[in-house]
Amino acid sequence: MATEIETTGYDAWREAFNQSRERDTSFTTASGRAIEPLYLPSDPSPEYERSLGYPGQHPFTRGPYANMYRGRLWTMRQFAGYGLPEETNRRFKFLLAKGQTGLSTALDLPTLMGLDSDDARAVGEVGRLGTAVDVVDDFERIFAGINLGEVSVSMTVNAPAAIILAYYLVAAERQDVPWDRLRGTLQNDILKEYHAQNEYVYPPAPSVRLVIDTIEFCTRHVPRFHAVSISGYHIREAGSTAAEELGFALADGFHYVEETLARGLSVDEFAPRLSFFFNAHNDFFEEIAKYRAARRIWARHMRDRYGAKDARSCTMRFHAQTSGVSLQAQQPQINVVRVAYQALAAVLGGCQSLHTNSRDETLSLPTEEAVTIALRTQQVLAFETGVVNSSDPLGGSYQLEALTDQLEEEAEEILGEVERQGGMIRAIENGYFRRRIAESAFQYQREVDARRKIIVGVNDFVDDQPLAIPTLEFDSAMEQAQKDNLARVKASRDGDAVQRTLAEVRRVAAGRENLMPALLEAARHHASVGETVDALADVFGRYHPASQRR
Amino acid sequence: MSKSSPSRPIRVVLAKIGLDGHDRGIQVVARALRDAGMEVIYTGLWQTPEEVVRAVEDEDADVLGISLLSGAHMTLVPVLVEQLRQRSLGHVKLVLGGIIPEGDIAAIEVMGVAKVFTPGASLREIAAYVTQAVAR
After folding, report:
1. Of A87, A164, A317, B37, which residue is 20 to 30 A from A476 by alpha carbon distance?
2. Quick one: fold of A49-449?
3. Residue B132 falls within a domain, yes or no?
4. Measured between beta carbons, which residues in chain A are less than 8 angstroms from residue B34?
5. Binning pLDDT at 50, 70 and 90, where does residue B119 land?
């Protein structure tokens, strides 16, 4: 139900709060003191009302919901997946049993790059950094015994995201779960691949078309599902500053908004299901300021520039992941501490979903012990620290408000620069994002090398004896097992039907219809990821970055 | 056999082999080596061993640097070393960076890798190593 944006002020917040449902727990400190749901000036100034306001109210600086974590904790959602689909199924069940509240699926590099497990370029990479998915049956195996209608599922995939979405929807069909019950997120943010993560296949324009197809399709048919998770995380990991992470991610988000509007949808139809994904990096106050600035900028642009009338179109919700690149191989035990501080920043910044990294991720994928510690980090945060008892508890801090304003200003400058360059696609072609990221990455490394930035255990407080921790062992037989599975599926499926559905994919790709129905048909007939990506590439072409010589 | 001299800058080919697209490290190294006066050719992502070795040959490189985060070093290194040898490029210094377990380093050095830089290595260290390794 749409909520009018006009309702603002303390009384409106109080009313919304009183009507909201609270978790069945006490919101008192360890010594029994009651904590207010919100702390604010006794006589809020007009500036306070304009820039901070109230949680659940424009501009949402203080949070997307009136009652924040008193109503619902963030989803504890550890990114997981490796090896065969059965292995990932086991790890999913393990994590759910340990108290995780949402699933997040990691796919292997061949799958992410649109290659099947039997592709020559996939040798040695199958199931190593995530789970191998070749055909829809693999998706069913990942979620065997897990009711897709009851658990929220996030899928981290970009270039072949629409195909993986099709597999997910078909897996739901086979579980007799109607699509309107599905909750979850598809990362599906192809723009940041061109800026940072490099997991693209086709050129930008057709890749964006695919993203808009999924947004349009989910708006109509999978209404509780987030078709995109607009990401700053990877941009930051590639070396950008906090302001660049924020500005670039927002620029990407607004580009998807504009493209979807151009498709003919009205903003309030689709915007409520756009979501974001930010990094939770080392600098405690800068990160919290970044999240607050993010919400404020999104709210202002969505209402004032894109004409959103529904408050939910203006309410930015985000998943956060603690920074992988900030973890160190030296003294890996210390990574547990880094992750705890970063998670605290994400929660004080009001995230809706959180992945905490495991201590051993600089060495390998996480062991059960390491990922349990990472999950328990979130649980201690949620149940023992008391920081969840009020919304935006650091709001009003002189430092935090100054940083929030600065980050907003710097991000707005970036948004303006992208426009000056002629928009997103032109800015990508100009190398604007990549150049800035590379410069920031280099400057940071210089600071570390010069010991102006200290990394404990690396350029100071170095231990002579490296502490060994157990790491995950890979079963190298899984690659052959997955290839055997794929061969079996290819042998038993109706080859003519596959070709027919892929021909339809090509036909639709060459036109302007939404690709999802054709991708769903291909999925149902066991067309593989590689075959489907190839069919799309036949029409869209492939994108090759230029090599650099200097 | 090529040697670097005061008038000829050290020539380095940098590459990423396999599907992994994480290039922050290699880009920062490329920049540092350029700042140190070397000529750096970064052939980019998704290279095969054949493509990389061909680039080394075409560019008359002194050093080949590979960034590997996918754990494929044990299978990849012998392939690279053999291909370099086959093209009479055995003099080219093969340097690795990325995620390479401490326990594997001795083994791949025996296979023919001149130096492995693990996380935490400084840009100064890397540039200094390349400079003295080629001068020898």
Report:
1. A164
2. TIM Barrel (3.20.20)
3. no
4. 550
5. confident
